[in-house]
Amino acid sequence: MAALKMDFYVILALHAALLAAAAPNLLQNPDFESLNNWDCSTHHCELTTDKHSGQHAIKSFGRTQNWMGPSQWITLKQNTRYEAVAFAKLLQNAQGKMFSKAYLSVEFDFNDGSKNYVHIAEQPTVKQGHWIELSGDLITPNKGIKASRIYIEGLDPGLDFLMDSASLTELPENTHWKAEADNVININRKQTMHLRVTADGHIDASQVQIEVIQTKHAFPFGTAVAADLLLTGDARYRDFIYQHFNWAVLENALKWQQMEGQRHHIDYDKPLRAIHELKSHGLKVRAHCVLWSVDKFNPSWVQGLHGNDLKQAVTERINGVVPKVKGLVEAWDVNNENLHGWFFQQHTGDFDYILDIYRQVHLADNTIPLFANDYDVVASSIMTTTYRDHILRIKNANVGLGGIGVQGHFGQGVCPDPTLIKRRLDKLSETGLPIFITELDVVVSDENHRADCYEKALRVFFGHPSVQGILIWGFWSNRHWRGEDASLVTGNEFRTNAAGQRYLHLIEQEWHTYTKRPLSQGGNFDVHGFKGEYQVKITYQGRALKEQHVTLGDSPQTVSLHVTA
User: Fold this and answer.
1) Interatomic CA distance for residues 79 and 76, integer angstroms
2) Residue 158 and residue 536: Cα distance in Å, rounded?
3) List 107, 439, 447, 455, catalytic entry
4) Which residues cross the membrane (predicted)?
5) Residue 46 annotated in active site
6) What mean pLDDT is reported for the chain?
7) Is residue 173 annotated as part of the catalytic site, yes or no?
8) 227-236 pLDDT per residue, tens
């Protein structure tokens, strides 16, 4: 099996490499060995030997607007996938700022006279003196494109920067994505159970039935849970969770703002009761989140703190909540959405304070993996490269980071693109850390189309070897943050809609193992089943004779049973 797995990944890697090699760079003078083909008419440009690769880079200076940078007019086809890469280096920091923001962008001029500007990639914390990678993908609009222009923008006016090593390539659709995902599922998500069933000589083998019944998945399939509804709400909500999920995350009850709206008046009761309730029904729980980097999602009394006062409050928060749930949860999201907010760094004036936050949480509980958690990294690629670099920075600091949380909120009416999702997951996999899909939702009004879109997302996630869990961010329309169009269960009638039926079909039928056969077909046979918990049952003439619990994990299991009557 190990050889088969290696051969399969070698084939995939070679296939990807061949595709990349076959795709020509659509940019002219992409290595900036001259000033040719790059427009600097709005500011000044010159060549420099301070380069990322080759012999030269281009230096931009005399910039009076943040959109000013070298640009090149390009020809793009409509409704087509592209990947773009460029490297930039900031030559001085903005006065009074901890860091600056940079984008790799495309301007579209359409045949109807309209324009559109799209950010392909964003690096929000650019500091002087380091080459940064700006890379991402996009699908061009499905309308006639007259002309397009690619450029770097966003850096503050007056700042000088270098640009080098640029590329723009067309990405062919991977029409084999489903087969590739199914292969990964078959190899990575399953294990072999060797059945050895014998019987006394007088037993009629045709009357002996052998059942192999999976009772629980090892792979986490979970949901966000509203604590109040779980504890005191509609029983149908609780029953659906207990019946169809094996993991959960509290949607809001463990967040600082909800727990400690007034300093030192902390509500531990609600989240702890909810966690115990979930665990009493066999669910594992992710803890979300110790801190939230976006200013407005912190308690109002925290938002006014700075320096050591803020650090003291953070330490109190960590040493209060983390030990309270120690031994009850499987992971912590430490600093939520740090790509989209820098409250703790900016209010302490310490760019590396994020590392100390992880270090403190790890000291409070070193028994579980710690996660970052963010968006725009798989549902789109604007921050994928940034997130990879952010994760590597925390990982290399050795402060307890154990995994990558990926939110997976797809835009309104956006159906996941398996070709692009796999590329984004591959980039995050370069960190060497497991990926957890923490907050999946797809927003499509037609429930049948929504079902197809959820299936694409689930199949490509479950079919990627680095993904170690999938949690949807709620399922009931009455309590879903994005409403009916993202739901699996609809309205007061609590109807499992087409999207919900598709989800349950995948989890409980296609990705679920059940085998039944008479002993007369042979007692020595193998079941290649999904990893998890099983009951092996033996009945004779309709009477239950034996039952054995089996855990099918990363190693094959042999089950030996003898039938007597």
Assistant:
1) 9
2) 71
3) 439
4) none
5) no
6) 95
7) no
8) 999 999 899 9
Task: State whether the Cα torsion 342-398-389-377 is positive or negative.
Answer: negative
Cα–Cα distance for residue pair 40/6, rounded to 1 Å: 48
Given a contact cutoff of 8 angstroms between Cβ atoms, the answer to whether 382 and 122 are in contact is yes
* Cβ-contact 381, 121 below 8 angstroms: yes
Report the 10 Å Cβ neighbour count for 99: 18
Q: Choose the catalytic residue: 122, 153, 260, 337.
A: 337
CA dihedral 299, 301, 304, 306 (to 10 degrees): -90
Which string of DSSP letters, residue by residue, matches 493-512? TTEE-HHHHHHHHIIIIIT-
How does 463-490 read in b/e, with b if 16+ C-beta sit within 10 Å?
bbbbbbbbbbbbbbbbbbebebbbbbbb
Whether pTM exceeds 0.90:
yes
> Would you put residue 520 in left (φ > 0), alpha (ψ -120 to 50) or beta?
alpha
What the block records as the tokens of 400 is 């307890």
Query: 304 burial class (0-12, 13-18, 19+ CB within 10 angstroms)?
Result: exposed
Residue pointed to by tokens 């006014």 = 304
List pLDDT tens digits, range 144-176. Answer: 999 999 999 999 999 999 999 999 999 999 999
Cross-strand partners of 535: 213, 549
